[in-house]
Amino acid sequence: MYKLIILLLCYIIFESCTHDPTFIMDVDPDPLDTMMVDTSMVDADCMSDDISFSDFIFPTLETFCISCHSGGYPSGGVSLDDYDAIFEHVESGRLIGSMNWESGFVNMPLGQPQLDDCILEKIESWINDGAQNN
Do the domain assignments include residue 57? Predict the structure, then answer.
């Protein structure tokens, strides 16, 4: 009986241990996201002129972000469902800050390699050109 009590106490102690990562921002994305990143959207040439929201930005976010950041309970409270939701994060600097893995932001995509430089350059170009809904 004594061994059973010790075993039960050990189990309770180990089960109560949690890993609580410290994030600089108040956003706490789902740390269990294991989505594999598909880099097939990388163009051979990285021309960043005339980047369109509907032709490049939204499809890119659908590929890399929407699986976690959409629906009624988006990860970290960050919804990227539509232009208005995305633009909110563009204006605050959170979209490009997290994608560029800048200090003070949660690196996205979480637990995956950073997006290709070409993709990031195109997103930055779109933002610098006014982040139009085109």
Answer: yes
- pLDDT-derived band at 35 (thresholds 50, 70, 90) equals very low
Could you tell me the residue range of the domain that residue 116 belongs to? 48-134
- Residue 39 makes CB contacts below 8 A (sequence gap 6+) with 115, 116
The total number of structural domains that make up the chain: 1
Categorize the per-residue pLDDT at 10 as very low, low, confident or very high, splitting at 50, 70 and 90.
low
Reference 127, options 67, 70, 61; nearest CA is 61
What's the Cα-to-Cα distance from 124 to each of 8, 23, 27, 52, 96, rounded to whole Å? 54, 24, 22, 12, 7
Average pLDDT, the chain: 80
Task: Answer yes or no: is 123 within a domain.
Answer: yes
Residue 34 domain-assigned (yes or no) = no
Displacement of CA 90 from its chain's centroid (Å)? 13
